[in-house]
């Protein structure tokens, strides 16, 4: 009974994109590990950008800095 947890920043991931992730991960586990899709759980967590950080900086700050640099 595989359990897969996908975490993404909350930036407008669509229902269609989430479904594609769920289907793709389920298919991958079925093909590679011969796992039963009926018992494969895929959970998608959307994390607020202020709660996701990299290299000592929140994603919100990174996006603002990168946008300012691109302008």
Automatic annotation (TrEMBL):
It holds the Pfam family Tautomerase. Its EC number is 5.3.2.-. It is an enzyme of class 5 (isomerase). Keywords: Isomerase. InterPro entries: 4-OT, 4-OT-like_dom, Tautomerase/MIF_sf. GO terms for molecular function: isomerase activity. Residues 2-60 form the 4-oxalocrotonate tautomerase-like domain. The active site is at 2 (proton acceptor). Belongs to the 4-oxalocrotonate tautomerase family. This is Tautomerase. It comes from Massilia eurypsychrophila. The lineage of its organism: Bacteria, Pseudomonadati, Pseudomonadota, Betaproteobacteria, Burkholderiales.
């Amino acid at each position: 009974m595989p359990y897969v947890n996908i975490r993404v920043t909350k930036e407008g991931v669509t229902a269609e994109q989430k479904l594609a992730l769920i289907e793709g991960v389920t298919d991958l586990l079925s093909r590679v590990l011969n796992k039963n899709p009926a018992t494969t759980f895929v959970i998608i967590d959307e994390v607020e950008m202020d709660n996701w950080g990299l290299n000592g900086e929140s994603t919100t700050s990174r996006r603002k800095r990168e946008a300012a640099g691109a302008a």
